[in-house]
Specification:
The structure is a single chain. By secondary structure, the chain is of the alpha/beta class. The protein is 33% helix and 9% strand.
Length: 708
């Protein structure tokens, strides 16, 4: 309870504009009254914005409020005043004020005090108001909670010592261009190329190859920088569909198509390119799991979320990979050319996701691009290179790698690259604190001494101070049942039509499809050991990392939720919000719904996911399956704004050094231009991922911080 006593005498709602409804209760009844109000959703809970910092119950000097009660009540008031000189004020939800006022008016019309009865937490609201003396509804200035914690502000700047001297000019340029563009919410067309037409066109173009392409996080950034993707590989068909829908595939070889399983691709079929990018699977090295490392033999063959059996099975993938190796002597030779222990270990017929990095090494050895950029989790640095069983039979020396990272670094160096790595958080350029390990490789110059390593530096990244409110839908958007509102959240028209057919009446509000169930909330409150309301995506907080398991096992507290206005339960992020959190622009088209793929499970023993609802409703199962598929693909992606900045620093080395003329027509150093272009592109991508409703406020904030 707040300790301060309020002495305001505002007993009318019209006295002041900024007032709230407060129920005055005698102190002895406070506990039972609050329990009854909670039971009837009359007060905000700690997972509601209205109750984020607690109840805000406070002392109120009741002598300032005039009451007209009967004689019996006045006698009791005199007795109460001997014990208490105040009442307790309980702020109410605005939606329940009229109901409580009606109950109190009804009590007054009865002209007599009801017989006293014992009030318990199970009593009804009407019974409590009717039988409890001296309960009064007033309007007064809101009381600010005294439980608001001091939030430690973390600086998300990366390499602050490398900030360009003219960064304020660059930021001003980006903001001015943004103002001319408007909110940037232009609807993307099919195969829309994320071109760099709004940026400096004076720098040379480049080509890149994207392995484990996913939904094109690398490609979005590199296309904005002027790059052309000439080869891409991805095995998961829904991700391939999104890639083809959003990125330029006209330069892909062969035949403008995305290649499939990397294990079955002959390295001779991959054309020469400037930079190779890849985010190889992180599950074997993630601290969220058991970190099996190279021994992880699970096959990346796609994932089914209540879908028909269109995803390739594990056995089919293994058989296909085995056939490809048996039928292609060149492949077999290439798999064995890297004479490090990890590559030799691959001869145990392990073609699982723990060994997928060897395919990157294979391509690098054959094609020899000028540079590469890889992404994985920081757990790569601590995952053991081999299990205890394998290491026991192997003689270890001081030069034997002991971690997965040391093994990978050695393999990359053996195929001719200088290797650099750094763990970087996306906090500065996105609204989430997503920490990932970025690995950069620069091709060794065979004409120079191999020991002379180029001085590559990971670049400066500013802190744009983005928070959850900058990417979340507004409440007006969440209650708008129009088609455009659903589409803006990532629910395609094809899926919405099925939902509408099921309801046969008015369409539900979009928010209702993402709110958790009563059972899930109960599990969070009473069974989860890790979940607390403070972990919600409050407006002023940085979001948690979006991973591929988002939306699964909600009741265990593993997925961050968004607070909803009382009395509604918290909700999951929409697919569009997840895309914004990852730094994907609003023009990025999310997946379409294929009703032929999703089905209802007939397995009555399927209890793995408490929010699956497959056995209860066919349409709900299809909806949940589709949404989880979107979460899965977005959680496996990389953050385009971060990639753009890193790529600019890499291109500085591989393109500027190859130019005979390092000065452009304006007399500026092209090497410096690449770094600036990467930084400028990264900031622009960050702004493109902001909710259009909040974009002006973000731009004004950035202008005040950097352009004064």
């Amino acid at each position: 309870m707040n300790d301060e006593t309020d002495e305001s005498n505002n007993n009318s709602k019209d006295d002041k504009k900024d007032v709230e409804a407060v129920l005055l209760v005698p102190p002895p009844y406070t506990k039972s009254c609050y329990a009854i109000l909670m039971k009837h959703d009359c007060v905000g809970r700690t997972w509601h914005p209205e109750g984020r910092y607690g109840s805000r119950t406070h002392k109120v000097d009741s002598s300032h409020y005039q009451e007209n009660d009967d004689e019996d009540c006045k006698k009791e008031e005199g007795e109460e005043k001997k014990k208490y000189s105040y009442k307790v004020g309980i702020p109410l939800l605005q939606s329940k004020v009229s109901l409580i006022q009606q109950m109190l008016d009804k009590k007054k019309k009865q002209q007599q005090q009801q017989p006293k009865c014992e009030i318990t937490n199970e009593s009804s609201l009407e019974e409590f108001l009717r039988t409890t003396p001296k309960v009064q509804l007033i309007y007064k200035e809101p009381i600010i909670s005294n439980r608001i914690p001091k939030v430690e502000v973390l600086d998300g700047t990366v390499r602050s010592e490398l900030i360009p001297p003219t960064f304020d000019v660059l930021m001003k340029k980006v903001l001015e261009r943004q103002q001319k563009r408007g909110d940037g919410s232009v609807v993307a067309g099919r195969k829309r190329k994320h071109s760099s037409s709004t940026l400096s066109p004076s720098l040379p173009s480049f080509t890149f190859c994207e392995l484990f392409a996913g939904i094109g996080g690398f490609g979005i950034a590199l296309e904005r920088l002027g790059g052309e993707c000439i080869f891409a590989s991805e095995i998961y068909q829904p991700s391939i569909n999104l890639y083809q829908q959003n990125l330029d595939t006209t330069h892909l070889q062969p035949n403008q198509t995305i290649a499939g399983d990397i294990w079955t691709i002959d390295a001779h079929d991959i054309p020469s390119h400037d930079i190779l990018v890849a985010g190889f699977p992180c599950q074997p090295f993630s601290t969220l799991g058991l970190q099996p490392g190279f021994k992880d033999d699970k096959v990346i063959s796609g994932r089914g979320f209540g879908t028909t059996a269109t995803a390739t099975t594990t056995n089919e993938v293994k058989r296909r990979r085995k056939d490809a190796n048996n039928n292609s002597s060149s492949n077999v030779t290439e798999h064995d050319t890297t004479n490090d222990s990890t590559q030799n270990n691959n001869n145990t017929n392990n073609s699982g996701r723990g060994q997928l990095f060897t395919q990157i090494v294979r391509v690098l050895k054959h094609v020899q691009p000028k540079a590469f950029l890889l992404e994985n989790v920081p757990g790569l640095l601590t995952t053991p290179a081999f299990s205890s069983s394998s290491s026991s039979s192997t003689t270890t020396t001081s030069s034997t790698p002991t971690t997965a990272w040391q093994e990978i670094e050695k393999a990359l160096q053996n195929v001719g690259y200088h290797v650099y790595m750094e763990a970087i958080s996306s906090r500065g350029l996105t609204s989430q604190a997503r920490k990932r390990l970025y690995i950069v490789g620069l091709l060794q110059d065979k004409t120079r001494n191999k020991t002379s390593k180029p001085s590559f530096q990971f670049p400066f990244m500013p802190d744009l101070k983005l928070r959850a409110m900058d990417v979340l839908h507004t409440q007006n958007e969440l209650i708008d049942a129009s088609l455009s509102s659903f589409i803006s959240m990532g629910i395609p028209e094809s899926l919405l039509s099925i939902l509408q057919q099921q309801q046969q009446q008015d369409t539900k509000q979009p928010a209702s499809y993402f709110q958790i169930s009563d059972a899930q909330l109960h599990q969070l409150l009473h069974k989860s050991k890790s979940w607390k309301p403070a972990k919600l995506a409050w407006n002023d907080k940085t979001c948690d990392t979006i991973d591929s398991h988002y939306g699964i096992s909600i009741g265990k507290g593993h997925s961050q939720l968004v607070p909803s206005p009382a009395p509604y339960h918290p909700r999951k992020f929409t697919p569009r919000e997840c895309a914004r959190i990852m730094g994907f622009p609003n023009t990025y088209q999310l997946g379409d719904f294929d009703k032929t793929r999703f089905f209802v499970s007939n397995n009555t023993n399927d209890n793995n996911d408490e929010d699956n609802n497959r056995r209860d409703n066919t349409v709900d199962s299809r909806f949940n399956g589709f949404i989880k598929e979107q979460y899965y693909m977005l959680g496996n992606a990389v953050c385009p704004p971060v990639i753009a900045v890193l790529a600019g620093a890499i291109l500085e080395h591989i393109l500027s050094s190859s130019c005979n003329d390092n000065v452009d027509e304006k007399g500026q150093d092209k090497k410096e231009n690449w770094v600036k272009k990467g930084l400028e592109t990264g900031i622009q991508l960050s702004l493109d991922a902001i909710s259009p409703v909040h974009l002006d406020a973000v731009c004004q904030r950035l202008h005040s911080s950097y352009c004064q």
